[in-house]
Design goal:
single chain; alpha/beta; Rossmann fold; seven-stranded mixed β-sheet; binds adenosine monophosphate
Length: about 180
């Protein structure tokens, strides 16, 4: 059976010294690894009533789109500021240097719709935390946040669980 960890390429000192970039393009390019990752993300939810999958730009779109298709759910993009054409709700979040904003269309989720957040990786959890808060602001029921990769030493999962949202990751890498 294919090992997901082996399908991920690790690039030291990218985008800057001290960071090990976990590159999922090698996983996406490997048909068996891509299928396995999507199957594993979907597995706990088969038969569950999930209205929508929300993906975080940009790698969350690829994985989230595949998960949405598999669960017969809708797909909602969470995008960087200024990319969505209709009326949006936005939230600021801190990056390592300064702050950024992410946005969703105001009508992307209806109150009480059950949604799962998908992204490739959770590090400090700042990005996913902002995404969860944005969806909760629209009244959505965020059933879970799912990632291929967790960097548990950075404590991101705890931040999301503090918002009442269970976190699930397929694999973990030590360090950051
Ligand atoms: P964070 O907000 O710290 O949890 O960072 C998560 C976001 O940054 C995700 O969208 C990831 O794709 C990206 N990211 C953070 N750290 C890494 C890393 N070491 N390798 C690849 N992507 C990363």
């Amino acid at each position: 059976m294919i090992d997901l960890k082996d399908a991920i390429r690790s690039i030291p000192d990218y985008p800057k010294p001290g960071i090990i970039f976990r590159d999922i393009t090698t996983l996406l390019g490997d048909a068996r690894a891509f299928r396995r990752a999507v199957d594993e993300l979907v597995q706990p939810w088969s038969g569950a009533k999930i209205d929508k999958i929300a993906g975080i730009e940009a790698r969350g779109f690829i994985l989230g789109g595949a998960v949405a298709h598999q669960l017969s759910a809708g797909f909602v993009p969470i995008r960087k500021k200024g990319k969505l054409p209709h009326k949006v709700v936005s939230i600021g979040y801190s990056l390592e240097y300064g702050i950024d904003e992410m946005e969703m269309h105001v009508d992307a989720l209806l109150p009480h719709e059950r949604v799962i957040l998908v992204d490739d990786l959770i590090a400090t959890g700042g990005t996913a935390e902002a995404a969860v808060k944005l969806m909760q602001k629209l009244g959505a029921d965020v059933a879970a946040a799912c990632f291929v990769i967790d960097l548990p030493d950075l404590g991101g999962a705890r931040k999301i669980e503090a918002l009442g949202v269970p976190v699930r990751s397929l694999i973990a890498f030590e360090g950051h």
